[in-house]
Design a protein that fits this description.
Helices cover 29% and strands 21% of the residues. It has 367 residues and is of the alpha+beta class. Helix 12 runs antiparallel to helix 13.
Length: 367
Amino acid sequence: PFQYHRPRTIEEAVSLLHEHGPGAMPIAGGTDLMPNMKHRLFTPTHIVSLNGIASMRGIEVVGDRGTTGGGNASSGSPASGDGTSAHTLRIGALETLHDISANRHVRRHFTGLATAAGLVAGPQLRNMGTIGGNVCLDTRCTYYNQTEFWRGALGYCLKKDGDVCHVTKVGRKCVAAHSADTPPNLIAFGATVTLAGPTGTREITAGDFFITDGIWNTRRASDEILTEIRIPLMGPVSNGRRGGPDSDRLGPNGGGLHRRSTYRKLRQRNSIDFPLLSVAVVGDFGHDGTMAGLTGVVSALGARPRVLAGWDEIAMGERLGPEVIDALAERARAQCRPLDNIIVDAEWRRAMVPVQVRRALGELAGG
């Protein structure tokens, strides 16, 4: 049994989580929490619903001081002014994945994110699931996401109730896989997430939000709430990092760079399954087609998404032709070593890395 709470403010929700300790869990869409409760993977004594908190909703373009610069994007209202001071897209954590995939600002500026949100599970789950929940999605593993009877028959596992990892057989580190679709894109776009806790709020980059511990793979404390996500609309590129105070100088209106993005998802059933492998790619192109920056992020192979190293040194100043694509795909393959944490052959998944990377880069090259 558990007690159900429905606070109206972020402060009230944080207070409830802090008061009731690790036994309290937040819920929004519930598409991950409820199945995990059914399998006794989560056994909360208090459920804190976030759905009554209006400030955690909305998709809007804002300026550097948080002022609205483009109208409420979720309502489709027109942009005001010339937009020169608005360079960040704010997404409330309670926005559904369906609304994000259909939003005009997301589709225009962050195509890869819109694609990823539209590929999560099926329509019913996208209408319920939120982006905040997707970012905080629990890691998954063949030996973890089972009924309690199944897990008990095996002696449980390191992530829940046991003391051994059935994947590695040794050590004290859980290697359950990060399986969310939107975070690889948020990392590639240089997004930040805002966490509200008992001592106030803090911002952290999406890339730093995840850690390599499969038991708890984020830096969110149990009494913190992810309240919003902010993504720079455009920015100068340096070593794969994007964003910054000059971000509104570039892009279609500034005549500097043109950004393209895409997302590839490999899964057994395209209608609903979690990824066996996912690839997010964001590239900035000059008017002559040469690349000013390229970021690739792969996921579903380990406890956190992996930013592919060395891509800029291959891509910078080059056009995205077959030879460059092959070199980038090979660099990706060399960095990815899947484990048997998903019920598909690990070597086959590794072989699929360059295949999916080539396809993603091919989509990017096609504009």
